[in-house]
Specification:
Length: 156
Amino acid sequence: MTRSAFIANRLEEVLLNGTWIANTNYKAQIKNINWQQANQQVGTLNTIALLTHHVNYYLGGLLNVFNGGALEIRDQFSFDMPPIQSETDWKNLCHDFLTNAELFIQHVSKIEEEQWDTVFVDERYGTYYRNIEGVIEHCYYHLGQISLIKKLVLKQ
């Protein structure tokens, strides 16, 4: 198995259909909740909707680079989510997230072996490998939060 296929499989595991590491994935966590549950505040925790937006923000920004564009995303804006005020808003965010996840996985699966160890956009960001592994770690971090918040929301 190539490194691209292996890492694409890891992304698919956390984003779309895996259960091996966390016994769940983003798609499973977001598909069966409504917009009120996605927006429900639990203490000072971020909402499921906001965390979904946050991860999608990074996927979209990296897709822009894969498609030949500039790295335009900034950490300071990653939680700037338009309000989710209806079921349609929530479904649109979920659809955008799942579409970006699929496209991101497709792009990663096509990375040539020699590109993995080259600089990603700028030397300060390290290599493609470091950045894509960082995406996986970031996704699992927030998947854990979403899973716990969902349990708390559904318990209320």
